[in-house]
Amino acid sequence: MLFSGLLAGPAHKAEKYSAPRRAVHLSVPYLDQAVSPAAAVIRAVRKYEPRMVREDFGQAVAHDNYYARAAVMAVARYQRAADQGFIMAHYNLARAYADGRGVDRDFSRTLISFRVAAHLGNVPAIFRLAEFYLAGLGMPKNRVEAQAYYYVAASLQNEAAVRAQGLLAPHLNNDQMQQVQIRAREIRKNNPRIDLILQRGQERELLTAAARNLLRVEALLKGGVDANAINAQGRTSIITAAWRGHIRVVRTLVNAGVEIDATDNEGQTAL
Question: What pTM was computed for the model?
Fold first, then answer.
């Protein structure tokens, strides 16, 4: 028994490490084909940004006529909220155009909305924009521009961005790296000055306020807080508000263009 057990150990370990990894482009809706070296970079981002994994996979639903009508209504809602200046509406609108949900896929429109959100300091939008440059979606491939955006996100103390820029750096020569630094400074200069501690504190405050304080939710949304931010349970502010039965808060969040199909760690949505 002991001898057979010793033999079983290495075999089990070999099987564990030889299992093929799922290609990252199969998990990201707007990546129709494999891209290299972008795959390793995008995989690293997903590892340290679980929210983006959840967004990529989305809610498990039947893509029937009801879903199609709901998706069209969602795009109209995002556009109204974006016109009112809600940052997350720009982000969600960009994702709809990138995925072709409720609207024809349009990478040009996608880039416009992601740039708006990214240049207002939204880190997930920065990641999405960098991926478009890496994959050459709606534009020629540009690793320098992608790396510049990863530099900007890394300057905001984002672990996923630090990993991403480290993986992409070996694929850039010295001249390109100098261009990256110049471009990153330009992007950072045009971005608003962000107090990271304040920003993260406001995201946590929104998640708390969604359970009981409509006026504070309205103020935080107008201030540009990332309403798609999640807590330890993976819940967004609208999931928290719905769970507590605060209909007026839910309505306010819906009108601000947040995603109502976001799922928590248990797969539950606001609905």
Answer: 0.83
The answer as to whether 263 is a domain residue is: no
Alpha helices by DSSP H, listed for the chain, are: 2-18, 38-48, 50-57, 65-83, 87-99, 107-119, 123-135, 143-155, 159-168, 174-190, 196-209, 214-222, 237-244, 247-255
Domain shared by 140 and 172, yes or no: yes
The answer to whether 146 and 134 are in contact (CB under 8 A) is yes
Domain range for 221: 196-255
CB 160 within 8 A of CB 49: yes
Q: Which residue has the tokens 């478009």?
A: 132
Residue 74, domain member (yes or no): yes
The 10s digit of each residue's pLDDT in 130-181 is 999 999 999 999 999 999 999 999 988 889 999 999 999 999 999 999 999 9
128 and 202, same domain (yes or no): no
One domain, residues 185 and 200: no
187-219 pLDDT, tens digit each: 988 776 765 566 777 778 888 888 888 888 888
The total number of structural domains in the chain stands at 2
